[in-house]
User: Fold these one by one.
Assistant:
Number 1:
Amino acid sequence: MHLTSYTDYALRTLVYLGTRQGLALAKIKDIANIYNISNNHMSKVVYELGQLGLIKTIRGKNGGIKLALPPEEINIGEVVRKTENLHIVECFDRNNNTCIISSACKLKFILHEALQTYLGVLDNYTLADVVSNRFDLLEIFNFHEKNA
Amino acid sequence: MHLTSYTDYALRTLVYLGTRQGLALAKIKDIANIYNISNNHMSKVVYELGQLGLIKTIRGKNGGIKLALPPEEINIGEVVRKTENLHIVECFDRNNNTCIISSACKLKFILHEALQTYLGVLDNYTLADVVSNRFDLLEIFNFHEKNA
């Protein structure tokens, strides 16, 4: 049971941008370097986060990206609901279900209840909670940027 | 966020055996047919469930497999904890973590809390709850076995 790498990097990107609130705009290549993933993969994550209205791209010479909302308005549960494939088991995806017992199976209700509870915990937190120690995070980012 | 196919089929196997409690011993090939997976994959699942003390293999001409415990003693949360890879994100697996922010990252605590809550819901159920409608399930299994 893993989050997809897309959700993982979407969250990490938000942490990076939340940490750097009020500083210079961020560059995709710097975030890609920090997390050691390709520019191409990071560009896709940034594009999708833009589509979701979570980050803003400023064009031009001193352009870059930043959060589109204050960190306290970015709910972690909402981000995961929007980015993650939540088909815990095959029968959660009606279009691709081949399990013959699904019409009578009680497991799906139990797994659904567990998933909702999982997301409910995430709903209790915003990006502001995650970057409440932003100076510790900033120190890590700055160290890695200097030594890149 | 999917359960691995191993956990999925482990649960389905337990549902099959829980439904057939008190009937003739089950055959691996019948369970494999019912769920449309290879005998080889099903044999591995059955072997692991045996190692976990959840199912018993009876050898000989009329041999087969059955639950090693009554369904009410097989806890769903416990099965998932034993079968699933619970490394929701990279940093949950200390041996394979490359994320540079993990020492200061608060996301991991939030995801850990959510995961524990997820498993806590599953802990509330046993296989007996899952097969409480065993006659409905049996009807499905019998129909598919006759039409295989």
Note: The first helix of chain B runs from residue 5 to 19.
Number 2:
Amino acid sequence: MKILIVHAHYEPQSFTTALKDLAVETLVAAGHEVRVSDLYAMHWNPVASVADFGERKNSDYCTYALEQRHGFENGSLAPDVLAEVEKVDWCDLLILNFPIFWFSVPAIMKGWIDRVFVSGRFYGGKRFYDQGGMTGKRAMLAFTLGGQPHMFGIEGIHGEIDLMLRPLLRGALGYAGFSVLPPFAAYHVPYLSHEGRQQILVDYQQRLLTLDTLEPLRFPSMGDFDERLYPKA
Amino acid sequence: MKILIVHAHYEPQSFTTALKDLAVETLVAAGHEVRVSDLYAMHWNPVASVADFGERKNSDYCTYALEQRHGFENGSLAPDVLAEVEKVDWCDLLILNFPIFWFSVPAIMKGWIDRVFVSGRFYGGKRFYDQGGMTGKRAMLAFTLGGQPHMFGIEGIHGEIDLMLRPLLRGALGYAGFSVLPPFAAYHVPYLSHEGRQQILVDYQQRLLTLDTLEPLRFPSMGDFDERLYPKA
């Protein structure tokens, strides 16, 4: 399997970084090929802007998705974006590895999605969800957070974690066609003992070695909707 | 009323920008004070990093929220962050004005939240939701998107818009204590006629002049949870 890990943490000694390092080590030892995009180390630019486009389709008015599509088709997209698109094209499994910031990815990773999930390749027209450009590939979130599992139950103060993460799981990864595996959540990290953290590493390694046993999350199927995207009767 | 509009769009001629301009004009004409943070024009840096801190609490290992709290208390946070915190402190109503990117804010605005919603002022310890630092202030999202309303019904292909936006509405604004007004959504913008867009401007102006009639969204109340944040029996 070919695996791309996109990693975002501002502190190289962080536990989030330890999860990334463990994933690389475990997956390589299991015979897989692994590439890493370490966004902080790369000084990744997260800001989608007109600077992402060389020759413009419309130089008077920028519609980001239309220029993405045009730039991808003629190879004039910014080189840092094209390099990441190439890595995603290459991989069978995409892992986003990050600390939760406001129940989502940190901005540097949001900007990786904004700029790399290009119209025309990842989605376009009626090509999304199970018709998205990334069908056949899997994706998984692996993240750290301060909260504890009981805060994310149905009755929990923050509600279910998959609902809080819906725009990522369904709105970005699922929309682009990835088969989205259940997220791996490392809860309560800043407050755990050394032993508590070691247990998470054991659990994550186990998870990484048993990905094939996981049932992907369920999202809408385009076949259930008509041409205008109304539900079929 | 004192109103802060945080605006993010890469195209100055965009309809999203027209919504921002209309809001400024309408609210000033109605006697309110308005300030605008135009993130693209300001070249806002969205990346949370160690560069945000002057004198560090722990110079060997950075925990972003802890350094935020420390830096806010002693005034050593990055000046661009402090300037935005001051604007939020000043305002009675915060409007986030943006185009939907992957069912969320563009990265430049996510990074405004990541860096500006500082621990110690916006939240901290058990101070969140109705105990959050921003209680007494209101907040509202105003955004443009390509999708149409029927795609966001309970049976719609993307599910309810408030669920897709949950990490923003509840996980960021609600968590920080804001009273969150229902979002203003400008649907189908890239495909609308001139008349269709004019109608949205009329609707938005009407919305801005009747904010007091809106019922805020409902989020958890800390009083319903015990010390360890388990639901009270």
Note: Helices of chain B lie at 15-29, 64-74, 79-90, 107-116, 161-164, 166-174, 194-209.
Number 3:
Amino acid sequence: MASSVRAITRNAAALLIGNELLSGKVEERNLAPLATSLRALGIRLERALIIGDDRAAVAREVRSLSAGHDVVFTSGGVGPTHDDVTLEGVADGFAVATEIHPHLAGLVKSHYGAACTPDHLLMARVPVGAQLRASPEVQWPTVVMRNVWVMPGVPELFRMKLLIVREHLIGPSQIVSRALFTQMEETDLKPLLDRAVALHPCIEIGSYPKWFDASYKTKVTFDGVVESQVEAAVEELIGLLPAGVMRR
Amino acid sequence: MASSVRAITRNAAALLIGNELLSGKVEERNLAPLATSLRALGIRLERALIIGDDRAAVAREVRSLSAGHDVVFTSGGVGPTHDDVTLEGVADGFAVATEIHPHLAGLVKSHYGAACTPDHLLMARVPVGAQLRASPEVQWPTVVMRNVWVMPGVPELFRMKLLIVREHLIGPSQIVSRALFTQMEETDLKPLLDRAVALHPCIEIGSYPKWFDASYKTKVTFDGVVESQVEAAVEELIGLLPAGVMRR
């Protein structure tokens, strides 16, 4: 099922599903590894949404995010119990039913053997028309409905599935990132940053004050797709800084 | 500015703002403490959205979330630099301008003294019509525009501001939570859970498998506003469980 050609993917959205994330019972842990993995692929994560175990809300958000982004990743709600509504919600979002996928059913049956019940086979449900994606490292495939990747909520399993994502998707170009750490307060840096931003419109410049760390006061990041342009913006700001404020 | 009467608040949404959260450069750390604090107050957090430093997107989402929820909390984008667009975005969302608030300007001036510049005063910007909320523990007030609380992104400051939230808002009733830890696989639990869910429609029952921890296999949570009803649902499920599967 693994493909040797990766699909060019410009942007992405994440839909993180689970009452437990909004009640504070469980800390959300999948957004950061997803963001990091997509970044490394050159795919821009544009928004992430956290909602509860609500089938109608999943359907509505999947429909909207799927239309607005090249690819969507859902996380959570894929188990067999009453509060696992993601696969039905994704199916509703595309106005299709769910069905038991024969390949997944085979995997479930071979895992549970004679103990396999119809409840176990709920884990082989897919929206009608979904595809399975696997990779050499990950045997249990991921369900992909149109441009929606349905990923598990358990953080260890979510991370494992990112290996499959890396096998199948790639951004249009790598993102080049640089960072400077300065001992200047963000407000004092502002006029210099404004100048660098104005002179380097293709570079995304970010400014992040550090309040509770003596090692620096403001971190400045530079992101772009052309390395020489990124380096030029970095050198521009360095040239504007007063002496002695850089952490080297 | 602190009020002795807390406003009854049923539900909430969060708007977490920052390119760095979507690029994976910085891990989101404010949702969990917000969720926990609101839960303790009996306020239901219904959705959280993470977007980049995009003034138009902030305006659009603030308008939509503000209309659909009793209260909205934004996080991030309140500094003085070019990528801090939250206050302007919130103002746009309510179709007002921003202005320098005299009380905040006084705080900024007394903090910076003779070194205070117009750039420092950007930190005294508020949407026209905004109010300030403080508490006995937190001197620097939080900007509240209609039902939108504008909170800082720096996690230590965000947590501090939650003290002000607790001073001003309260849910309609406390939420009672119980949890059972079982040695049953989630799929085997499913028919028993379905029965407990059907018999206790007012209780929110959640099922959370633990994959990489030998101490239990599935955690079941019970939430409601009437303690006796929550306890009855817990006892119902305990009565359905086979012997020896509970972690006590």
Note: Chain B touches chain A through 62 residues (CB under 8 Å).
